[in-house]
Amino acid sequence: DPEMKGFAPLYDDFLSFYHRNAFMRIIECLTRPLARAPGAVLHIVEREFSNAGWVCKYTGKILKNVVNLGSYNYLGISENKGKSTKVVIEAAKKYGVGICSPRREVGNLDIHSELEQVVAEYLDVEASISFGMGFATNVMTIPSLVDKDCLVLGDEHNHASIATGCKLSNATIRRFKHNNMEDLEKKLCDGIAYGQPRTHRPWKKILIVVEGVYSMEGSITNLAGIVALKKKYKAYLYIDEAHSMGALGKRARGVTDYFGIDAKEVDVIMGTFSKFFPGQGGFIAGSRAIIEHLRADSAIASYATSMSAPVCQQAISVFNMLSSTEEGKKKTKQLAKNCRMFRQGLKKAGFIVYGNDDSPIVPVMIFYPSKMLGFSREMLERGFAVVVAGYPATPVLGSRVRFCLSATLTDKQIQDALSAIIDVGDLVQMTYLKGK
Ligand code: PMP
């Protein structure tokens, strides 16, 4: 149906009907044009579909404004109404936008060093290094840390960028069950007696790789359990804090802050500038030795263009706001309040909601891939842009709506969104908990 009409409640034969790739592409067509500030009003743009390969073309005609409940603008800064915008413009005037060189050649500006110092101070670690892309930060850092003689233990729900980095490293890779410490310990013991401290070294290094907040599950890593195991078995720990830094903890410094654990217990902290901060790029923070090693060894430091200066300035301003101003505290508190209100409303209505109450990611289970598109489209009809995710980002029968909340959402927008979700949930026959 080129106009995407009449799809609503009848998708049960959808998967058998379409090739999987075509199916995934349709979902992308619905979600991709919506990526702007959550909480802010969005412009939904008319699209044209060609039957051959489902290529979509944007005609640019604005059809209606909707509220964005799907992108990563957790603190609501990407609306660009804040004070940071002025200094970002100043940075563009001073440095220009493009860098045109990697860090190891002539792409090294004072603003990069300033950003790296700000990150290290914010996290209370020795040093940090920034890169032009978050995804590539994981992909290229992990192979710099481990090789074929090492063991990498990754949570089964780790992000695609982590999985790709692990594969590229040529290390032996084992996945442990999500947040399951028993399974992690079993896998740590590969080659040594179960439950015994590591007395010999079947592996040159063991690296445990997890996320702070899991991007599809909304769950928070079991940091205390992992730190205890890493010490017992003399392993190293790498945490991707893309969705946790800026949201979790009294000072919004991520999972270490949330659990009151010293950030130095984590050997490698990875983060992105594309979510809370919100610009583009990634960073690694940790000991000076690790950061200097990455500066010299990592392919991304040698071969990829460094971060744009205005984007560095944007991240610096947001780090400063978070660490030293009332505005920062207000935004993180508002985000936490919005998350709780939204989750409680969903649970009260009987939806199956995954993840931790403090997570800004709120996955609501749809289960059947055949219901994804209907949910997304019907929400759009009611004025809300949502992201639905399915296989291969989730198990085949683990399709879900992945809400990402923002500090800028008002109580009314949240209540209206809940009413719309309840309405659409009934329409597409979502699975509810008993008692509904
Ligand atoms: N890590 C995680 C956990 C992510 O969710 C993402 C992207 N959503 C990335 C890394 C990649 O970051 P970026 O989009 O900034 O490249």
TrEMBL record:
Its cofactor is pyridoxal 5'-phosphate. The keyword Mitochondrion does not apply. It comes from Clavelina lepadiformis (Light-bulb sea squirt). This is Aminotransferase class I/classII large domain-containing protein. Belongs to the class-II pyridoxal-phosphate-dependent aminotransferase family. The keyword Acyltransferase applies. Keywords: Acyltransferase, Transferase. It comes from the Eukaryota. Residues 65-421 form the Aminotransferase class I/classII large domain. Signal peptide: none annotated.
